[in-house]
Each structure stands twice: as C-alpha cells, then as structure tokens.
Amino acid sequence: MVAIQPCALLLLIGPDWRIEAISANAAMLGDHRPSELIGQPLADLIGGQSVHSLRNRIAWLADGESDVFEFGPQWGDVSLDIRASQAGGSYLIEAELAVEARLPDAIGMVRSMSDRLGGDDPRSLAGQAMRQMCTLTGFDRFILCDRRGQVIAEDGRGKLSTVSEHPEITTGVHLIADRDAEAVPVLGDAPTNAFDRAAYLAPSDGERDRLTELAVASSMSAPLRIDGERVGVLHAHHGTPRRCGAERRSVAHLFAERLVARMARCGWQP
User: Fold this and answer.
1) CB-hemisphere CA count at 13 Å for 113?
2) pTM of the model
3) Which of 48, 59, 227, 233 is 20 to 30 Å from 261 at the Cα level?
4) H or E segment and range at residue 220
C-alpha cells in the first residue's frame, strides 16, 4: 500500500480534474471523509478559485520529469506549499503544510550565494557551497555526490555518522521530515507507479533502519542536472526531525545546479 508522511497531503487528479486517489489526512482541509472524495471534482475539496490557480500553474509543466511549485496558497484555512508533476495522463499533487512565510528575494539569494563562491577548483567550490547550504537550510550536514554516488564534498556539524561509506543514488526528490512519523495511507485504485515521483512517500522499513544507523532523523535528497543530464545528487541530513520550507529548498536546489555547472566549466568530470 502506498503511504505518505503526515506533513503532506497527496492527491492524484485525473485529466477531468476529479480526484483519483487521496491520502487519508485530507481532513486537514476541513470536515471531509477522504474515501468519499474519490471520484469527486477537486473543486469540492479546495474550491474553484484554488483549482483555477493550480490549473494555470500546471500549464507550465514541460515534460514528464518537470515539476511546478506554488508557495503559500490558502486551501481553506490552511497555508500550503504545492508541488505538481505529471503521472501518466494524471497529475500528482503534493501539498505540504507551510513552515515559513515567502522569502523576500529567492532569486537574489541564489545569485548572492553563487557570487560568494571563490576560485576555480571544483572540490573547493563544492566544499564552500556545502557550508552555505547548511546555513541556508539549518540542516546538520550537506553532501554532494557524483552520479555514481561517490562523495565529492560534505560539510556540517553534530555527531552524524559519515556517509562516505554509505553512498545512495536517487533519481528524484525525496524528503523525510521525521523518520519515525506514522505513515498515512493513500486511498484509491491508482497503480502504485503513479506515485513514483512523490517526494514525501513514507520511508520503507529498510530506509528507516539505515537512517537510524546513521543517527539521521530527517533528510532530503535531490538529483542535480546539467542540460537535462543527471550529473550528481545532493543530500542533507539532520539529527532531529526537521522540515525546510519548500521555497527555501528550491533556492538550495537551484544554487546546487548552478554549482555543478560551474564545477563542470572548471574541469570537473561528473
């Protein structure tokens, strides 16, 4: 059974904008019985104006691997950060509870962080960037790996075990806010592979055991690409439950992709 972490609401929406699958925590948006929402118009859950805004955002999707975001919209009385992607002929929607207000200048933050990188040695650039990442997000440790999972640079604090002996490869964004949080089932008859690109899927028992061994309670991972080709993976680990805001994560991801492009121009071979 597909399950999601309790900090996020998961929806699979058909091309007719009816709900095909929904996580059992839909009651966070009001007095709803999730099982009764399946097959109903999405507007019955979030309202017509919110559906209109979401449709406009989804129109930006470029291909099957792209994502679009909307930071801070109100669905009912709840402020959320929305991530949408394609899932076959349907749309996969993750709506997580917002943890911070909108950033005053997200693009300016990326430029400033990039400008503070000095030199032309790829590993030195990576090390500088990982230090900035920890400051930006508050995570205990950031790790940059190549596309084979080998560590290029890491920086952080605390007593987390090193990941150099535990490389992991990810093809999509994966977030764990609390390793031990109780999973929330997803209701509906959609095929399991429709949820492959969901970022907040509940961790498996094996993944939970691995994180426990590393003394990691929360993590995030994201692939890094140059011209659409995956060249590396960014990992963040924290010793206690933690969730970085979606817009701040987007800043970190954009900065990291600018970083690997600069490393490549300085001679790095991913």
Assistant:
1) 29
2) 0.91
3) 59
4) strand 218-226
